[in-house]
Amino acid sequence: MIEDGVYRIPLTLSISLEPQRQVLEEMIVNAQMRVKSFAAKHGWLDLISEPFAEAADIYDSKYDFDRAAIHLMQLPQATQMPEKAVACLENGVLMTVAPHIYSQVYPEGIEANSFEKLMAHEIAHRLHVRILGGNEDAMGPIWFFEGFAIYAASQFENSTLELGDSEIWEVVRGTERIGYEKYAAAFRHFAGKSSNLSDLVKMAGTQDFEAFLRRIDR
């Protein structure tokens, strides 16, 4: 443990990334610090008393990341990982592509400290599950659980994207994955309307979620 809620996570790297080890280890620490700050702000510090990851792996190719992720998640070997999938945190392993691969695969996500934000995003998903007592099925629709992680990690923090009312509700009702910047805009819209983020989190997995959103959106 480095400090309460922040841990020194053993890091395995592709050989070509070894010269970056110290920098990458610092980024992992910084990612945890981001989540800790977010958890403290919203009253969830007690939920980070145990580490979210026991190990971290960073790969210098998207292909190697995909193969490792498929194995980690015990998916069929023929599984095709999404083109823009670059990180995950499953079974206690935080896994990502290298920063330069991230920039190539997902250039729209590049901003200040974007790689540590990427890792914070994955850690935030695990925090979200802990808030819900381990019930991943209660995380809500795609836009919400991705929006939560984006919000926690402060991704797209300088985005100028503004959604009109109809566009916000298109995001809320959508079932297919779309651009994360739209998730960020929709989530921040409703977070700004709610007096307590915990209320949004608790309602997201219920049948009354849309009605709840309409009430606070007045």
Q: How confident overall, as mean pLDDT? A: 97
Please, how many helices?
9
- Indicate the percent of residues in helices: 40-55%
Trace the largest sheet across and list its strands.
Answer: 1-2-4-3
What's the gyration radius in Å?
Answer: 17 Å
Strand content: 5-15%
- Low-pLDDT ranges: none
Measure the end-to-end span: 45 Å
Class from secondary-structure proportions: alpha/beta
Instruction: Characterize the main sheet.
Output: 4 strands, mixed
Number of strands: 4
Provide a descriptive summary of the structure in words.
This protein is α/β, with parallel strands linked by helices. The protein has two domains: 1-131, no CATH class; 135-218, no CATH class. The radius of gyration is 17 Å and the shape is globular. The chain contains nine helices and four strands. Helix 1 packs across helix 4 (114-131), helix 4 (114-131) crosses helix 5 (142-153) and helix 6 packs across helix 7. A four-stranded mixed β-sheet has the order 1-2-4-3, sandwiched between helices.
Supply the key terms.
alpha/beta, globular, four-stranded mixed sheet, 218 residues
Q: What secondary-structure arrangement, pairings included, does this model have?
A:
Elements: E1 11-13, H1 21-41, E2 55-59, H2 62-72, E3 87-90, E4 93-97, H3 99-105, H4 114-131, H5 142-153, H6 165-173, H7 180-193, H8 197-203, H9 209-216
Parallel strand pairs: 1-2, 2-4
Antiparallel strand pairs: 3-4
Helix pairs in contact: 1-4, 4-5, 5-7, 6-7
